[in-house]
Specification:
8-stranded parallel barrel; TIM Barrel; Glycoside hydrolase 35 catalytic domain-containing protein; globular; GH; about 375 residues; alpha/beta; hydrolase activity, hydrolyzing O-glycosyl compounds; 9 helices; 13 strands; Glycoside_Hdrlase_35
């Protein structure tokens, strides 16, 4: 089913099929949630009054080794898009290639670093060749799910917060063209904090802003550089991530709802990052290195103090948001899905174990000197032993 006109940003308000439209969005990453729980989380999103799902696409999971692609099971992006459509949710897709997301190397595959001359997020040929190869695969899967083709995707983001990096002024046009030339026809967006807005945009894409605490001057700046366009907070940080060795971050529900209320009063669109955080499975948690002496890794949990907890439970934030968003809908919101069933399991008793040192003899690759963890492969897993 083809449609006439998708999401447009030609005035102070978004339009969809030429009708005024406000994005009430929430981020849920399919790769951070077991597939068995996808529907539960999205049903709870719908019941909260959210109309748009946003998700990143992690290159390093979909292409763990160069030329080896995985879109099956928990990584079945097409199934996730079909599910969103079946539940009546629109989708803003953020395919990177860099996604940040507090994810290992920002979603870039570690095998890129085997090139000793690699220059990430630039038009260095070693990087652009790899991006082109990945986009050849992933964009082909995305295009049939665009709004114009009867699908749920109403917008696609170009890269992610490039303004805070900005090493190559030809890079963002390259990514934009890489998307468009492969058939992306929906509205293009960029996403940056206030400082990143200066260098993070690209001609032809709507600039959006990221923040947690409302600063009127930041909104005014966005309006100044992009007049007569709809304003959107692409990442309203509903909580924050946690680092190993630190305390769990809490952003109070009362403070959160005050800011969201003000954003909506200003006729802006919003996306909650995160609506449901999920889990950093395996070794995919990233590390944070800004403003601290040494990088610190993220913890396994990506609960984020989000409106829906890591376990999928409702929180005070959820109920406050639902009450607020209900006033922006003409129809009553769906009933709340039942809370998940809880069971008490017996303790697991470990009978045997094998230490890392005792397993070294079975490794396929050995080196007498330390190597970069990206060199052996295996998702950056390396074992080192010294005297």
């Amino acid at each position: 089913m083809k449609r006439a006109e998708g999401l447009r940003a030609n005035s102070l308000q978004f339009t969809l099929e030429k009708n005024p439209f406000r994005i009430l969005g929430g981020s849920v990453h399919y790769f951070r949630v077991p597939r068995a729980y996808w529907e539960d989380r999205l049903l709870k999103m719908k019941a909260c009054g959210i109309n748009t799902l946003t998700t990143y696409v992690p290159w390093n999971l979909h292409e763990p080794e160069r030329g080896v692609f995985d879109f099956e099971d928990e990584l079945d992006l097409e199934a996730y898009l079909r599910l969103a459509a079946s539940l009546g949710l629109w989708v803003i897709l953020r395919p990177g290639p860099y996604i940040c997301a507090e994810w290992d190397l920002g979603g870039l595959p570690s095998w890129l670093l085997r090139d000793q001359n690699m220059k990430l997020r630039t038009t260095y040929s070693g990087f652009t060749d790899a991006v082109n190869s990945f986009f050849d695969k992933v964009i082909k899967k995305i295009t049939p799910y665009q709004y114009s083709q009867g699908g749920p995707i109403i917008a696609v983001q170009v890269e992610n917060e490039y303004g805070s990096y900005a090493k190559d002024d030809k890079y963002m046009p390259f990514i934009q063209q890489a998307l468009v030339s492969r058939g992306i026809t929906e509205l293009l967006l960029t996403s940056d904090n206030k400082d990143g807005l200066k260098l993070g945009g690209v001609k032809g894409a709507l600039e959006t802003i990221n923040f947690q605490k409302l600063n009127i001057n930041e909104i005014k700046y966005l309006d100044d550089i992009q007049p007569q366009k709809p304003k959107m907070v692409m990442e309203y940080w509903s909580g924050w991530f946690d680092l190993w060795g630190g305390l769990h971050h809490v952003f109070t529900a009362e403070d959160m709802i005050l800011v969201v209320t003000e954003i909506l009063k200003m006729d802006m669109s919003i996306n909650l990052y995160m609506f449901h955080g999920g889990t950093n499975f395996g070794f995919m948690n990233g590390a944070f290195a800004v403003g601290i002496p040494a990088p610190k890794p993220m913890v396994t949990s990506y609960d984020y103090d989000a409106p829906l907890s890591e376990a999928g439970d409702y929180t005070t934030k959820y109920h406050l948001l639902r009450n607020l968003f209900s006033s922006y809908h003409n129809q009553p919101l769906p009933k709340l899905p039942s809370p998940p069933e809880r069971r008490a399991y017996q303790a697991v008793v470990v009978q045997q174990h094998l230490s890392l040192w005792d397993s070294l003899h079975s490794t396929e690759q050995r080196s007498v000197s330390p190597v970069r963890s990206s060199t052996p492969g295996e998702g950056g897993l390396a074992q080192r032993q010294g005297t």
